[in-house]
Fold each of these.
Amino acid sequence: MFKNKVVLITGASSGIGAATAKHFSTLGASLSLTGRNVENLNKIAEQCAGEVKPLLIIADMTKESDVESIIKKTIEHFGRLDVLVNNAGVIETGGIENTSLEQYDRIFNTNVRSVYHLTMLAVPHLEKAKGNIVNVSSVTGIRASAGVLSYCMSKAAIDHFTECVALDLAPKQIRVNSVNPGVIVTELHKRGGLNEEQYAEFLNRCKTTHALGRPGKPEEVANSIAFLASDNASFITGTILPVDGGRHSMCPR
């Protein structure tokens, strides 16, 4: 499905990004994978199928020079770019009474500014390939959630970014869509501040907060990303696709 196509995935060293990398590799894609954790990125690369060895780029998405090097190294290595998956993101707990401007800047620099920057740089190459973009947002971009204010705001920004950029790039035949996961079993929330006990309770709550009664798996999001990036979705652009077990349809909390 993606043979002879180059797919760039940010935040590919764990969670949804890692699952997406492995899935695209089974579909024949040539992969450019970025992340901050060298060891994890190497492990994921070893788990990827396919004949073409993934290009690994160690990068901090909050550094402009690193973002620029991602595109530069990808094009130097493969000569083209067909799909950009903007997956890298972070979360931190905090509501309006106990957040800070520093937290706001950290979240937005990673979750929004870097996506804005990388997409700008990728467009000329995607135009040549008539490629497409899939942004990884969140159900919190669609509906409010208490206690993660900066994160929710950042994902709402990504949703609007997706819709606006889809309109900007439609004349160039570049499609732009997003997936909006609900709770997915990854390390994201623990890295964001939840301890083991809190995380277990957080997952348990999915029985009532998600219509399907469970959290999702990274592979389920990866499947949706690959669909949106494929020719099977050739007439889909500007779409915000919940992959959340019905969470976006449930009554608040």
Note: The chain has a mean pLDDT of 94.
Amino acid sequence: MKINIKSLDNIHAAAKLFLEHKGNGTVFAFYGKMGTGKTTFIKALCECLGVDDVITSPTFAIVNEYSCLQNNEHIYHFDFYRIKKLEEVYDMGYEDYFYSGHLCFIEWPELIEELLPADATKVTITTNNDGSRTVEF
């Protein structure tokens, strides 16, 4: 499926559409160049899911955990950009997150691709010539 985000004004509508069509998967691997809006889109997804916490990129923490007020679920937001060795991911106990049944939104998954569950959903965000973004999954 492809979703076009023309501007930040319609990012929440795009996030709602994504959530309506995401299927039953729980692990979503977000691919895209630096600055394409991965964090911004994940923030919109979390807001649409009822997260009331401050949503930021977990660049230095590697993972942020958010609570979803609607159903007391957890959402895990990962940023593996600064990972140097897979041992760092093993040490953080990635399996506990990826196989928890809770939503996992992963930025820079290409750095840990061999650890992703086989059923992880690949989400690609690209920047178009007109500045809009396309989310494809």
Note: The mean pLDDT is 94.
